UniProtKB/TrEMBL annotation:
It comes from the Bacteria. Residues 297-539 form the PD-(D/E)XK endonuclease-like domain. InterPro entries: PDDEXK_AddAB-type (IPR038726). One of its GO terms (molecular function) is helicase activity. Keywords: ATP-binding, DNA damage, DNA repair, Helicase, Hydrolase, Nucleotide-binding. This is PD-(D/E)XK nuclease superfamily protein. It holds the Pfam family PDDEXK_1. One of its GO terms (biological process) is DNA repair.
Length: 595
């Protein structure tokens, strides 16, 4: 049924019967687009409308550089610094200096982990040897070809009885197992060595091993210094096959069928992007009159990082590991409050006093599932002030409630996929209301719509999304709920108001303009360097910021470096000052790397 569906799709051309699933594709969740995964697996299907793909004018996949450098070390005997330098110098696309710093760190961390693994296996009489050829499981017939692959590094014992795959993680190991672990183990147990191109040939030319394995291992290696590798699978091939057939194969089969579409970050690479009816297309949304360097994704978080420092934005965009350091009070509080509100509003009914028991109660209700007792004690005063302004309490009938959804819109004029993360969407008397929620010890942002939007640019983007009909006809309102320990207040902006709309357009265009054409992403040192999450990879010398908890000054505004709270603002907040405050104090919805 799934095959027929894709073979007859009017927006696609090519062969729908070639399916290549990478093991990592099995870890997707219900929040991801199922059709994107099905089409990603169908490597011989392409959009029917031809479109010349524009590639980024810089390296976007740092892990690929790590792999090539490690090949030079393990197979050619090169020194790490020499291997990294050669890989970067010979790369087809320019490599940001900060990426180069991380690549060398990652290689050294991997080799440190490899020594630990070798020492462990040596005590068992096993010597792991790197293997050049990856493995693939493929099954073909006259009707179709199915392939299962794994991306990482391959090893085996000299006698062929032990096969090991090492998964590369950008910064840390995962706390729980994933379906892909068993899929990778199956590729190690049943896969044959690929001598052809694993990602272009169909089928791939393979060769057999001389000996069958008796032991299969999958080990996760975090590319961070002094982090011990984690053994995910260590079992016999028979047990690996059994678990794969029982638990994972049904998931893989489901991937090929597809299912519910969920517009989001995947849309930027999706084969159905040009013809998908679920992805809104709004030419001119960002107010830009050229397509920039290539197709890419932008969010308010990206814009804020860029305002603070273009290098920071770039290094976050390519998912280099971020250091959070000591989380400030406002970050912990903000995360806890947002998690509680998402859980509460997902029920579809107003929040009530009974939902917020005393902090010393044995049963903390909703909070027990989303935060620690200490976090609840800190968040509860803010949540209590939320009750009188809970968006589900009306006035008027409230319908179509959606807590923490992902909203994606494509601007073809700018060739940019815009992604937003509203705290809450709902309809009141049938009209859309888009709410953002914040906690602070300060008072409500004040001033003209333009001044408020500079402090909270999510509101400006929300106005544009509503005004351009992304949520349907009929317009709507944008709300900002600010919770303090003693009071919560709500500001509202009508997206149909000409002054509000004009201020929103100016704010968003100002945020994306420089980013859209930048190819260098030069560092912009300042007092914000001290708390920059990617500062350790930045080759620029840090500014000399205050130490400890001394406030930092940004454009005449004093900001607490630990919490992000604005302590004194004798002048209106500039975009950079607001961005520094926000990046210090707000949880980042895009913080997790993809690998």
């Amino acid at each position: 049924m799934g095959t027929d569906r894709w073979a007859a799709h009017p927006g696609l051309r090519g062969n729908s019967e070639v399916m290549r699933i990478s093991a990592s594709l099995l870890d997707r969740t219900e929040r991801d687009c199922a059709d994107f995964a099905a089409l990603k697996a169908r490597t011989a299907l392409w959009p029917r409308a031809f479109e010349r793909r524009r590639y980024a004018p810089w390296e976007t996949f740092p892990l690929g550089l790590v792999q090539r450098a490690l090949d030079a070390v393990e197979f050619d005997g090169a020194e790490v610094d020499e291997a990294v330098a050669d890989v970067i110098a010979g790369n087809r696309s320019p490599v940001h200096p900060g990426v180069g710093v991380w690549v060398e760190h990652a290689c050294r961390a991997f080799l440190q982990a490899a020594e630990w693994i070798a020492d462990e296996l040596e005590s068992e009489g096993v010597e792991p040897v790197p293997e050049r050829l990856p493995r693939v499981v493929q099954s073909g017939s006259a009707a179709e070809l199915r392939m299962l692959t794994a991306w990482g590094r391959w090893y085996g014992s000299r006698d062929g009885t032990v096969r090991e795959f090492r998964r590369l993680r950008m910064s840390r190991t995962r706390p729980v197992a994933a379906p892909s672990d068993e899929a990778i183990a199956f590729v190690a147990a049943a896969g044959r060595r690929a001598v052809g191109d694993l990602y272009r040939d169909a089928p791939v030319d393979v060769v057999d091993d001389e000996d069958a394995p008796t032991r299969v291992r999958v080990v996760e290696v975090a590319l961070a210094a002094d982090v011990r590798p984690r053994v995910l699978v260590d079992d016999s091939p028979d047990q690996v096959r059994r678990r794969y057939l029982e638990r994972v194969r049904p998931l893989a089969q489901g991937i090929t069928v597809g299912g519910e579409r969920r517009p989001g970050p995947d849309c930027v690479e999706c084969k159905l992007q040009a013809s998908c009816e679920d992805l809104p297309r709004v030419p001119g949304l960002l107010g830009l009159d050229d397509p920039g360097t290539h197709r890419r994704t932008w969010s308010v978080t990206t814009g804020r990082h860029y305002l603070v420092c273009p290098a920071r934005a770039h290094l976050r965009d390519v998912y280099l590991p971020a250091e959070t350091g000591v989380e400030g009070t406002s970050v912990r509080r903000g995360v806890a409050v947002h998690q509680w509100l998402e859980a509460a509003h997902s029920r579809g009914r107003p929040c009530a006093p009974a939902d917020l028991p005393d902090a010393d109660a044995d049963d903390l209700g909703l909070a027990a599932g989303v935060m620690t007792p200490e976090e609840y004690r800190e968040a509860r005063p803010y949540l209590l002030t939320h009750l009188p302004v809970c968006p589900l309490a009306g006035p008027g009938p409230v319908t179509d409630v959606s807590a923490e959804p992902t909203v994606a819109v494509f601007d073809p004029a700018a060739d940019v996929l815009v992604v937003a993360h509203p705290d809450l969407l709902r309809r009141v008397d049938g009209r859309l209301v888009y709410r953002e929620q914040k906690t602070t010890v300060r008072e409500l942002p004040a001033g003209t719509p333009g001044e408020v939007f500079e402090q909270v640019p999510q509101l400006a983007l929300a106005v544009l999304l509503i005004a351009h009909g992304v949520f349907g006809a009929g317009g709507g309102m944008v709300e900002l709920e600010v919770m303090t320990p003693s009071l919560a207040q709500v500001m509202a902006f009508d997206a149909a108001d000409a002054k509000v709309l004009d201020a929103a357009r100016r704010q968003i265009t100002r945020m994306v303009h420089g980013w859209h054409r930048d190819t260098e992403f030069a560092p912009s040192p300042g007092p914000w360097c001290e708390r920059c999450p990617v500062a350790r990879w930045c080759p620029a010398p840090r500014a000399s910021p205050p130490t400890g908890t001394e406030p930092i000054e940004v454009d005449g505004v004093l900001i607490d470096p630990l919490t992000g709270e604005v302590l004194d603002a004798p002048v209106p907040l500039t975009g950079r000052a607001a961005a520094v405050s926000a990046t210090l104090g707000d949880p980042d919805p895009e913080a997790d790397p993809p690998f």
